[in-house]
Amino acid sequence: MSSTKRAYQSDDRNLALELVRVTEAAALAAANWTGRGLKNEADGAAVEAMRLAFDAVAISGTVVIGEGEMDEAPMLYIGEQVGAGGPAMDIAVDPLEGTNLTAKNAPNALTVVALAERGNFLHAPDIYMDKIAVGPGLPNGVVDLDNTIGTNLRELARAQKRDISELTLCTLDRPRHEELIARTREAGARVMLISDGDVAAVVATAMPGSGVDIFAGSGGAPEGVLAAAAMRCVNGQMQGRLLFEDEDQVARAREMDPSGDPRRKLGLYDMAKGDVLFSATGVTDGALLRGVRFAHGRAITHTIVMRSKSGTIRFIEGQHDFKIKTWTAR
User: Fold this and answer.
1) Structural domain tally of the chain?
2) Is 29 exposed, middle or buried, given 0-12, 13-18 or 19+ CB atoms closer than 10 A?
3) Residues near 313 by beta carbon (within 8 Å), at least 6 away in sequence
4) 175 is in an annotated binding site
5) Domain span holding position 284
6) What's the predicted TM-score (pTM) here?
7) Do 52 and 24 belong to one domain?
8) Is residue 144 annotated as involved in ligand binding?
9) Which of 109, 123, 138, 301 would give a disulfide with 256, using CB separation of 3.0 to 4.6 Å?
10) Successive 10-residue mean pLDDT values, the chain, 330 residues
């Protein structure tokens, strides 16, 4: 292996660890508000800590999935430049996925960041996206957004050599999913309803023992891009389609991503292509990660970090001493 290639791989690994520090910072800040019923305060703390942590990351980053437009968010807004200088990167962030979950101390609140080389993430407006996802090791196209859920469940059961009754579909507990839920149960599968947190739910389809076999339904488009980044790293499958309420939203999507029809069905590589890094740290306990634990001036965090280039998945436990650490709010 050439020295140049070794240096590039070493830099990439170092960058992955830097991302862990970024999501840890946001999780530690948000966890101060766990169970206090103050979702906006939790979100604000996570945003501020994540933005500060990015100042030490050796990239020239542009936020393409973030907290909204410049006039809607004070930091980590779409188009904001972050990082200490280095390779040009797209950044997708959700400083606190599950603000309500954090406020209620409910499961599956996460802090999430994904990186890709410039131009490799879908620039998606903050609207809904229809999504479907399954884990790795399955035939390509085993499920399809254009098929009925009954057909998708039958094809998934056939591919996994299981009965449909053994499958569990996860979806957000929303009135708009009533038909999806009814058709899933009618087909014979189980349904797992979640109140928030569809990034974690999509990733769970790729994690053995999570109890989730397929995710389907509509949720935020920004969360869809983050989930796609994670699925790239685990070789899972995912499709999406933006859902528009009016022509103004269509025009906005076309402006942000002029490369194709805004209404087209999006494959995994339409949402996240090239080399992708993904990190998420638990704020509250969930199927994917443990939440932050505070005790005696210290905290323990639990993070997943993944690289699409190598397919490596690492779970990292961090122990933080607040007598030394200075970049958190605690």
Assistant:
1) 2
2) buried
3) 233, 234, 304, 305, 306
4) yes
5) 3-119+276-321
6) 0.90
7) yes
8) no
9) 123
10) 39 81 97 96 96 95 85 83 95 95 95 96 91 96 97 98 97 97 98 93 92 96 96 96 93 85 94 96 93 93 95 93 64
